[in-house]
User: What shape does this take?
Amino acid sequence: MYHQIGFLEKYYAGDIYKEFPFLGYVNAPPLQVEGGLNNCFTTVLANILKTYDCEQGSYRYHIISNLLIAFLYKVKQLILISPVQIGTEKKCSSMVLNFMKLLDKHFRNIVAGKEDKLYTVADFARLLHVHPNYLSSRVKKETGKSISHWLKGMIIGEAQNLLLNTTLSVAQISDKLKFDEPTNFTKYFKKKMGRSPKEYRVQAELNHKV
Assistant: This one.
């Protein structure tokens, strides 16, 4: 999820988490979407897919981000009118939410070449002024996933994004994501995705042409 939020933050001038606080909830109960609102959701999502597939102009991602913001406002509206209460016990604490923000910002800086190494748990804990063990336990308890899981997810997410949306070589992507050797990046990616970065890119291009 935070990889997608990073995309929105790039194009949205406001505070994503303040405007859409439900993004900080984990394991929230499902909400029923019916009638006209269901049609609205379907229309917005269809427009996002159509824009991604057909729009080739320089404002392609600006358009998509605005459509996504419209979608989030509809979700916000649904939460406000829903009889299901999304309790505060399902909401991440400010510390864990700040960790997620730092994680997202860190990986955007990594891809932009503004960071020279991947952060460790100790690095995040230092920035949040807490003990690494405490941060690890809170993230695991509140999100159900370890910090290691989140880090690996961000690495794979950024790798997929770079493979699909840039012409960078596998070696260049490996370097951007701070792997010491392209072969190590290829092994890492294949273990997680079931295919090599090159195979993943080729398959994605074939699927897009179908």
In short: Residues 60-81 form the longest helix (22 residues). The two ends are 27 Å apart (CA to CA). The chain has two domains: 2-89, 94-209.
